[in-house]
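Why show two proteins at once? Because comparison is the fastest way to build intuition. When a single record is shown, students tend to memorize it. When two are placed side by side, the eye starts asking what differs. So, the first record is below.
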Amino acid sequence: MLQLENMRSWEKIVMVVKRHWIVFFILWVYFFLAFIASVSLYIILWFNILTHMLNILFWMIFSLFLYIEWLNHELDMYVVSDNRIIWIEQISFLNRVVSECNLWQVQEVNSKTSWLFANILNYWTLSIQTAWNKTTLQMDFCPDSMQAARKILNIVDHYRDSHLSVKTEEK
């Protein structure tokens, strides 16, 4: 179970939205293309010490690139609790942005799709528009974002209804 450092004692995580598996498939395609380039380097330049050194250097740099790309996609997530939404976005290596908003600040939740593969594999763009400084929290490659958008809107509506009923009872 995911537990964040600044969670309040009464706060519960309702849902966590991470990226679709297609981004990891794309990383495998990069790996396969690099493997073909590496083998073709051996075929073109034959087997000598310079070819080995270039190939080792290439794989060291490329494996670092793959790790950073994997990390950037793996750590991006929405964490929706019963009180707020936290958007964690890994921009690049050692560069992270964490945004959060209370559920009463959510104005609209949208999902947008494009391309044929996005429709077939069911990954879309999920964006949450907030009232605070006109901030938009946007996640590309979100799995089943239409259902996630509906679930987030249901959580927001439940939050507003419960707090509205408390305020009317106080009056």
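Second record. Ask yourself what differs from the first in the token line.
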Amino acid sequence: MDWLNAMNRAIDYLEANMTEKLEIERVAKIAFSSSFHFQRMYYMLTGVTVAEYVRRRKLTLAAQDILSGEKIIDVAFKYGYKTPEAFAKAFRNMHGISPSGVREPGVKLMAYPKLSFHISVKGDRNMNYKIVEKGSFTVIGKQTRISAVNGENFKQVPEFWKDCMNDGSYDWICSKAGQLGVLGICMDLQHFDEGFFTYMIGVEETKDSLPSGFRSATIPAATWAVFESVGPLPDAIQDVTRRIYTEWFPATGYQHDCAPELEVYPAGDTNSADYKCEVWVPIRK
């Protein structure tokens, strides 16, 4: 309940400071979180980044201000736009009309409401997990930039797997799989609130020379919460990932440690109802 209240207090703070510059560190502090954990949790709970939520709310309030008679140029500066042109472009992208068009009779506007968080008591399915300590290690594989806007990551990641299977990259990766198996690695998560992160399909480092287009990366030493996923891909592992953020984190007091996340895929039929894989999330108290 403390976590729930803290998140709602953070939303209240955002709402009370819509005309000010977004200071994510201060908002996160209200939620008793690191700025990274707050932003990651917020996205997984709502499907939008904190920055995108603030942008939509500002443009919703801006339309109401214009309707009430405020000058468009004053409204633009009020909500942090440096020029009326930048404001007009953003306004049109959301509402489909120019700011001046708001005052036309019968015009339709887009309203993005204030969010609030509530408890949803489920408890109908267990979450099997273990805590693992692992030192730093190097991975190699193919990587791509993934959009974190409007849940696009849940579409783009499976598409990237298909691309790697079609171009032969996946076969090479499988042939080099080590103790962990084939890995899906979410990296550069510090850019999540900017709307993107990097995703790699790879394995632990081998001594073989890398094919063209492959990259290497270092996974830092961390404490990991390791969750079991059972069922066909990608639905089963995406469901577990969502539950980690909506159920497990709020219930345990752990926070994300701002390191890469791992998906660990053993050999097997990924379309089987019995297929087991794992999600590794770096954590700290």
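One difference worth noting in the second protein: The two ends are 17 Å apart (CA to CA).
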